[in-house]
Amino acid sequence: MNKKKLLIIGTIVILLGVVVYMNLIGGPESMEVQAEEALNRELIELVSASGRIQPQTKVNITAEVNGEIISLMVKEGDRVQTGNLLVVLDTVRLRSDVDQAKYALTEIEARLEGAKASLDQAEEEYQRQDKLYKDKLTSETAFNNAKYTYLNTRASYNATEAQARQLEARYVQQLDNLSKAKIAAPMTGVVTFVDCEVGEIAPAQTSFTQGKTLLTISNLNVFEVEVEVDETEVSKLDLGQSADIEVDAFPDTIFAGEVVEIGNTALVTGAGTQDQSTNFGVKVIFKDADVRIRPGMSATVDITTNKKEDVLSVPYSSIVMRSVNIDSLERARAREEWGESSSVVAEVQAAEEAAEEGAESTSSDTASNSESEQEELKGVFIVKDGKARFVPVETGIADQKNIEVTSNLTLGDTVITGPYRVLRTVKDGDEVEITKKRED
């Protein structure tokens, strides 16, 4: 027997002696834990988010032409119908533009008539010279002069006609601009926002500028809540899912809602910082109208993403993660069944692992394989015969308090639920004492 094996055996003997002595003078002290039975429950999985209420349909009114506001026909809160006059802009400049465009069009139309007469004359002369030339009654020079005069006159007429069309289009545009000086309601609804006064200049919205929102018309018959949902939860959502809406202004009322829109583009805030977050916009509609609801109110939605009845579940707080060697755990439990104490098992197991480590120190590949036997497992600690037993589990849906367990747990098993500091440090085989057992 070599010195290394003698050293290992000596270490084991010393450890056994220490453990036996500790047991003789009083044994290990039990941990105080809180526990709860695994029960069948109804679980409703929710995705919660907060946002603001807005009308499902609203239109921001902007001016399409620059002009001074000379009349404002509505105020905030007024109900309007489609076509009702809202704002009137000064039309002096616009009428002047229309008149100028009309004069230019009239002039070009007169010139076009003259060009048409010249074209008809040149065409007749060309046809006459063509006939004479074919009958050899005129010279080639006279024929060519008539031909080129006709072609030149026709080109001039076409250019004048094109110019006339251009000026006609400009005239039509100026008439359209003049009509836009009167801004009418594009939909039936309520004026929910006004940000203009008589006398101020309304800037036009163009392809290059946003323009100013003069007022907003909203359909207050249908409201929705626009919220942002974290990227880790948006995959649980689907159109048509039901939701409970809590409005801060009415804390005692729950409004029924439904998911009607899920964004496809991520909304990133705090990019490049520790507070960076990625969310997706989601809209939840109110199923029923309520006259108390106002745009801009704060609200929270609880969207039901899954629901199961009578499923085995445990408190969410009881789920832990442990790096476990399953084979070693089973061997330790087997030794306990042979009558050895949990502390003895733990020390013997540690000594055996040290011996195995020393025996295999010459092979780095073998050591790597040994380390790989450790698995990061999700599980719970149950109380059995006064001791904590780690049980790997698989989980399903969860509500705000409990989580579904789909494997390795039995109805009525007593599961350790706290305190948190105990769940962080408790090990398989530790002696525990239940100090507070909560019942549903």
Structure description:
This protein is an alpha+beta fold and 440 residues long. It has helices spanning 3-24, 92-134, 140-179, 326-337, 342-359, 364-372, 420-425; strands at residues 31-37, 39-55, 58-61, 67-72, 79-80, 85-89, 182-184, 189-194, 201-202, 215-218, 223-230, 242-247, 254-269, 277-286, 298-315, 320-324, 375-384, 387-392, 395-398, 402-405, 414-418, 432-437. Among the domains are: 46-55 and 222-305, Elongation Factor Tu (Ef-tu), domain 3 (Beta Barrel); 57-86 and 182-221, OB fold (Dihydrolipoamide Acetyltransferase, E2P), CATH 2.40.50.100; 91-180. It has seven helices and 22 strands. A hairpin with a 2-residue loop joins strand 17 and strand 18 (387-392). Helix 1 (3-24) runs antiparallel to helix 5 and helix 2 (92-134) packs antiparallel against helix 3 (140-179). The model is unreliable at 340-356, 358-364 and 366-371 (pLDDT under 50).
Secondary-structure blueprint:
Blueprint (H helix, E strand, L loop, with lengths): L2 H22 L6 E7 L1 E17 L2 E4 L5 E6 L6 E2 L4 E5 L2 H43 L5 H40 L2 E3 L4 E6 L6 E2 L12 E4 L4 E8 L11 E6 L6 E16 L7 E10 L11 E18 L4 E5 L1 H12 L4 H18 L4 H9 L2 E10 L2 E6 L2 E4 L3 E4 L8 E5 L1 H6 L6 E6 L3
Parallel strand pairs: 1-22
Antiparallel strand pairs: 1-21, 2-11, 2-15, 3-10, 4-6, 4-9, 5-8, 6-7, 8-10, 11-14, 12-13, 12-15, 13-14, 15-20, 16-17, 17-18, 19-20
Helix pairs in contact: 1-5, 2-3, 4-5
